[in-house]
Design goal:
Chain lengths: 219, 223, 241
């Protein structure tokens, strides 16, 4: 058996962590775009859109991410193509992220005072103009902390893609464990790397939140 | 696409599914009761307890909230035996869920405690209650009532997250689905069925927790 | 011809009939004070005239055009009739000047430079030109309300609806807002205002409407309504016996 130094273990894990970071970025950005779409359906004027968005959110938030990954993997497989794990992983994570971001952002839009709608109405603005110039700029400000906070869930969510065979940090952890028989050390390192990725995000979310609250109190 | 859906296997494998559902329910029942209890204890430690204890709890909470549940599970199941702590799959799964929910509910309950008006603590003190007595008799119940919706959502999230315990061969609903699809070669249909079962469980669990909220906190004022 | 013609207007919220057939005709340049107990439907009436609530029955004509609940008609109406709210409702993310410029630019498509000239003019009119770059949270309540007035005026409406615009203000700030309104009235602006400032209503208004349980209970010149109330409800409201 090959000898692994602690540094070898760490180096292998860090190399794999690049894929965790990349997949997180793709999921977060893609999920943000799809989430915007779902958001506008959810708060829009079209009843069918609202119903669809509610169903979408309920479905993706009411079922395990792992099941969504399996369904993406085997569902795409039905089209006869050999599905690479990264594709299924990216697709499922994007759709899953979108459902949460849409719901978070809806809360932010609804947090804008009713008087803002009325005042802009009384000035003759239409729905789109109100959204663009009055509501969204205010919603955006309160949306930043919870959005940053949710990015932590996305990073952690990518760990599940190891189960459908995408080689990222968690999968690398299992592979290195199988080669070294040092589960305690390896999974300890894996956890610490995740922590190093997530904790700064959690912390900045908290700090942003606090700043926002202070700004609000000054009103 | 010429794929023909086939659900004819459902009858044959129903007992396997039911057993998996049973394990998933058992996991979340234990996880919720013990996890929330742990969370309350930790919230007390962080909000009102001695500083050193609050510090330890803070580290625990941050570690858990910033690492994936899957890795926590692997660490407990594969990692702890090298310290001489050998655990069965179900025990490891149970522990992982309690530890995980404990950290999240700690933060949620703490927010509820911090939203308590100062006057409540002062009233308790003025009635000669000790700080802990004030916490237990005066502060805790309204705090829990305040954050019950958030706590309920977290329990549902942990239930859905429990799908990964199949990865250490704990025989939950996902494990059952994995088993079935390896026999019937109908992976997509199998996961659709198990996904819908999870959806139903999530909806039922949410209703159940709402009911629990109503019985635990019958019409008391929150503020 | 009257500028605002309100005929048999009815409004229900569920089973609660809040307006039970309102008739008021407002001539150009008139200043109407609407008084009455809380819950008598004063706000709802103003909100109906501005199209913030749809009416269930009757009709509202503004400058001869009927109020219809589609976006195009609503926009046309709101270009003619401005509204000032009790809670100011300034846009908190925009400076005072930007607050006044925004709707000109996005609704009327006024070029930015022109909108800015107008904004300065209107802020000057309410005595706040020096606060052009201040944000709402840097202004006192009275100043915020004056910016809100400037914002409505910048759309060059032919009438203004004011719903208890001094009720959220500290007492010492009430007069600076009322002074602005008084000036507008003197310049010939048509005003309908819900108010609890009885002295102001008596001094400035051409007519006073007393609303009671969703109806116009009494209406007339201030001298008559305040000096010689006919119904027991108005007497009780005014505290005369
Ligand atoms: N959006 C609404 N939904 C239901 N009821 C309302 C609504 N707005 C006002 N009301 C009811 O209409 C009645 C009149 O309210 P309002 O016009 O605000 O009275 P005022 O301004 O004279 O105090 C009240 O009984 C109030 O509860
Ligand atoms: Mg009112």
């Amino acid at each position: 058996m090959m000898e692994f130094s602690t540094w070898d273990i760490l180096r292998n894990l860090l190399l794999a962590a690049r894929w965790t970071v990349l997949l997180s970025l793709v999921s977060f950005i893609g999920g943000g775009l799809v989430g915007l779409l779902i958001l506008f359906m959810r708060i829009g004027k079209l009843k069918a859109g609202r119903i669809f968005a509610r169903g979408y959110i309920e479905l993706f938030q009411g079922t395990p991410l792992l099941m969504q990954l399996f369904l993406a993997f085997f569902g795409l497989g039905l089209f006869g193509i050999n599905v690479p794990a990264w594709l299924a992983a990216g697709l499922a994570l994007i759709l899953w992220t979108a459902s949460f971001l849409a719901e978070i952002w809806r809360g932010c839009v609804e947090a804008v005072a009713k008087g803002q709608w009325e005042a802009s109405s009384s000035l003759g603005m239409g729905y789109v103009q109100q959204m663009r110039w009055v509501i969204l700029p205010q919603a955006l400000k309160v949306a930043v902390p919870p959005t940053v906070g949710f990015s932590v869930q996305v990073v952690k969510g990518t760990a599940l893609t190891s189960i459908i065979g995408f080689v990222e940090l968690s999968k690398a952890g299992t592979m290195v464990t199988n080669a070294t028989f040092l589960p305690f050390t390896v999974y300890g390192f894996v956890a610490l790397i995740y922590f190093a990725l997530c904790w700064p995000l959690s912390k900045s979310s908290q700090i942003l939140e606090r700043k926002l609250n202070v700004a609000h109190r000054n009103h | 696409m010429t794929y023909v859906f086939d659900f004819s296997w459902l009858g044959e494998y129903m007992p396997v599914l039911l057993k998996g559902i049973g394990i998933t329910l058992q996991l979340i029942a234990v996880g919720a009761v013990l996890g929330i209890s742990l969370g309350i204890a930790c919230a007390w430690a962080r909000a009102l307890g001695p500083k050193w204890l609050g510090g330890i709890v803070a580290v625990y909470v941050e570690l858990i909230r910033n690492t994936p549940f899957l890795i926590q599970l692997f660490f407990i199941f594969f990692g702890l035996p090298s310290l001489g702590l050998q655990l069965g799959e179900l025990t490891a799964a149970n522990i992982a869920m309690v530890v995980n929910l404990g950290a999240y509910s700690c933060e949620i309950v703490r927010a509820g405690i911090q939203a308590t008006p100062r006057g409540q603590f002062e009233a308790g003190a003025s009635l000669a209650m000790s700080p802990f007595e004030t916490f237990w008799h005066v502060v805790l119940v309204p705090a829990l009532q305040r954050i019950w919706p958030a706590l309920s959502s977290q329990v549902v999230i942990v239930m859905l997250g429990s799908a990964v315990v199949s990865q250490i061969a704990a025989e939950d609903l996902t494990f059952a689905a994995n088993f079935i699809q390896s026999r019937n070669f109908r992976a997509f249909e199998t996961y659709i069925v198990s996904t819908l079962i999870y959806l139903a469980l999530a909806i039922l669990l949410r209703q159940l927790l709402r009911g629990v909220g109503w019985t635990l906190f019958p019409k008391r004022a929150t503020r | 011809m009257s500028l605002i013609a309100i005929t048999e207007v009815k409004k229900r919220f569920g089973d609660n009939e809040v307006l039970k057939g309102i008739n008021i005709d407002v001539d150009p340049g008139e200043v109407i004070a609407i008084i009455g107990k809380s819950g008598s439907g004063k706000s709802t009436l103003l909100r109906c005239i501005n199209g913030l609530e749809s009416i269930d029955d009757g009709s509202i004509l503004v400058a001869g055009a009927q109020l219809l609940p589609d976006e195009l008609h609503l926009k046309a109406l709101r270009l003619k009739v401005g509204m000032i709210f009790q809670q100011f409702n300034l846009f908190p993310h925009l400076s005072a000047g930007r607050n006044v410029m925004l709707s000109q630019m996005v609704v009327k498509k006024t070029p930015k430079a022109e909108a800015e000239v107008m904004a300065r003019k209107m802020l000057d009119r309410v005595g706040l030109l020096h606060k052009f770059d201040a944000y709402p949270d840097q202004l006192s309540g009275g100043q915020q309300q004056r910016v809100a007035i400037a914002r409505a005026l910048a759309m060059q409406p032919i009438a203004l609806l004011c719903d208890e615009i001094t009720s959220a203000l500290d007492p010492e700030l009430v007069n600076e807002v009322l002074a602005v309104v008084k000036e507008l009235a003197a310049e010939g602006m048509t005003l309908m205002m819900v108010t609890h400032e009885m002295r102001f209503a008596r001094d400035v208004c051409s007519r006073v409407v007393f609303m009671h349980q969703g109806r116009v209970h009494e209406i007339g010149p201030p001298g008559e309504v305040f000096g010689n109330p006919k119904t027991p409800e108005l007497k009780q409201f005014l505290g005369v016996h």
